[in-house]
Amino acid sequence: MTPDPDQRPPIDTVLVRRLVDTQFPQWAGLPLKLIDPAGSDHVIHRLGDELSVRLPRHREAVGQAAKDQYWLPRLAPQLPLAVPVPVAVGRPALGYPWPWGVARWLDGEAATVEGLGDSTETARELASFLRALRDFDPGAGAGAAAGRLGGSDAGLAGRDGSTRAAIAAAADAFDAPAMTALWDAVLACPRHQGPPMWFHGDFHTGNLLTVDGRLSAVIDFGGFGLGDPSVDLMVAFTLMTAETRAVFRGALDGDDATWLRGRGWALTAGLSAYTTYAATSPRIAEQTSRQIRAALAG
Fold first, then answer.
1. Tens digits of per-residue pLDDT, 112-121?
2. Peptide bond before residue 86 is cis, with ω within 30 degrees of 0
3. How far is the C-alpha of 50 from the C-alpha of 27, rounded, in Å?
4. 101 has which bridge partners?
């Protein structure tokens, strides 16, 4: 029986093995290993030494395989860090209801505050990546596809109710008046001016890979879109210290309103994760607490 697409379908290694073997028999002999922990949107397996298999966990993540297949080959030549290389898109089958993706495996470890937080070189590299992303030229024939990408201009206002509820829920852990004042200022500041810009959409430590202590790749472009690039400033508050944030901000050369909206994204995303997961995950509690306090500090 096909699972209700509004629910989270069961995904295990047996299912992934059968999907790969029946749809891509050229890879049937390759070993398959679950990657745990993975992100909240996909179940990820390593396939052999050179491939990864990603199955969406829920409806909101559906479509990323096709999105990656279209956009990442266009993005890769214009960016200073590696990005995933899509190889194939699998079909719904065997009770699994959605398309899924196969990409080249990228070696590396997730970036950490301890490893890179105080690195001015990393701050400049991340600013350079975002400048290149904002200047991305998709080439002829991509205009219609770009027009279907979501923007983030209305995203902050659309999170007002949930953010204020999270401020109230987290009032024992953080300075609720300060969070409210920041959020009020974010909603009152000017929105993005000028033409829409390209953004990653989920630019934080978990989506940055390092090799030998240096940035090597940016992954998970599920939030990639065209609109207000302030959403990508979240990385300054998830990874950097006050000193390296200043270097990053100077290298980007953005205006005060964009920076303020970036603080707003860091606050609302941090609060959402904190109120959802902190009680059961000390790791998430620590990471999001740091993010929220950094957003308040500016």
1. 999 999 999 9
2. no
3. 11
4. 54, 89
Residue by residue, DSSP assigns 183-248 as: HHHHHHSPPPPSS-EEE-S--SGGGEEEETTEEEEE---TT-EEE-GGGGGHHHHHT--HHHHHHH
3-class secondary-structure state, position 9: coil
Q: Model pTM? A: 0.91
Least confident range of 31-35, 39-43, 114-118, 264-268: 39-43
Summarised one tens digit per residue, pLDDT across range 135-180 is: 998 876 666 566 555 444 458 999 999 999 999 999 999 999 999 9
| CB within 8 Å of 246: residues ≥ 6 apart | none
In whole angstroms, how far apart are CA 54 and each of 24, 59, 68, 205?
Answer: 14, 14, 11, 19
Nearest Cα neighbor of 9 from 53, 58, 62, 66 is 58
| pLDDT number for residue 36 | 86
Superfamily of domain 109-297: Aminoglycoside phosphotransferase (APH), C-terminal lobe (3.90.1200.10)
